[in-house]
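<amino_acid_chain>
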Amino acid sequence: MLSARNASIGTTRGSRAELFRMSAIRDDLPARSSPIPTSREITRQRDLHESRPLWADSPRISLRTRRSPQRQDYDCIIVGAGISGALAAHALADGKRSVLVVDRREPVHGSTLASTAMIQHEIDVPLHRLAGMIGVDKAQRAWQRSARAVEQLTRIVADAGLSCGFERKKTLFLAGDAYGRRALRTELEARQAAGIEAELVDAARLAERFSIDRTGALLSDISASANPAQMAAGILRAAAARGVEIVSPLEITDMRATTDCVFLATAEGNIVSARHVVFCSGYEFLEAVADRDHAIVSTWALSTPPGTALPDWLKDCIVWEGADPYLYLRRSRDGRLIAGGEDEESENAYASPQKLRQKAKTIHRKVEALLGLSLPEPDHVWAAPFGTTRTGLPLIGRVPGLPNVFAVMGFGGNGITFSQIAAEIVAADIAGHGDADADLFAFRARDS
């Protein structure tokens, strides 16, 4: 298969270089999606976390990588070696395809390190509200697919025997200023209609079981938590054992997409090509796909030292609230309290050291008030940008106007869960049989 394809695209360095004298992207794209610059950036590069996150010092997150690709042509090239790229590699590594994963950083040292790794089936936009935005059927399918993704992630971790602190959890969704008791009851009915089990906990039982003073909560089963760096590194190792090649650091500086092949230029001046290219570059997204459906916001997080005195029920639950901005928290296996929130609709606010201090204090104070206890000062605080969409659903699939180029972005608060969905949808498309839910997450055509 490779030899036939290579014959059709040409194999000389001169013919490859000639491609990069042509226009990279259609001229009719909106102004924000201007042609890919000839400077060092094909993607919007960002400092993905302002300070050092908790996971940066984790053991077992280093991988053996190559300094340069072993070949010029591949069946699939994945740009990004975080959790999204790892899961894509896992899905595409069938023992037959040649698959290359590249990253301009050390693997798993991008946006994956900034994750708090609350692996939820619950989407940021509640089901009943999402139904009003995209229709009941599509909303139900999105939530059902999210629940199945958590189950599949559980199987992947178990099958690979990963040591990444993965634990199944319940989710406690608390009433807040954005979604009160009535909204929770409406949400419960919407979930039950979709076949997604949940329990409505009234104020009295919430106080008795959890010592939390809110008007109510929804308790559900299909969630988990993990060390995201160890999880991504473990999945990449498993993919490498199945023949996936990992090259780092390797920066992609330009791209040309044709109907037969996609060519990528590297910072070293070399060119590699593939039948399909998948951009799993976290919050550094392709200029070519930046559009009105996607926005970057800033978020903040903290963790307390190991062995923090916490309520016993936190061993089994992760928590978030129906508020704006909302608070979310969980307990790690070694007894840390990991919490985050205070999101701002700004793609640069995360970079402010002053905001980092202020937001950390606010999150710390809110958690103390919610749990009714005194917490030690955090030993890690960090900030990061993340992608979001109006519906809370990610953008997954073929990039309009760029043949054979896929991208995954806009993961909001469900990065790991949506990464698994993305891996399944992209792998199905490349295999040629498609995915029944692909339409839920597809990029909109530029003229729509």
Remarks:
- Confidence is low (pLDDT under 50) at residues 1-14, 22-42, 46-50.
- The domain at 167-223+295-388 is CATH 3.30.9.10 (D-Amino Acid Oxidase; Chain A, domain 2).
- The CA atoms of residues 402 and 436 lie 22 Å apart.
- The chain is about 30% helix and 25% strand.
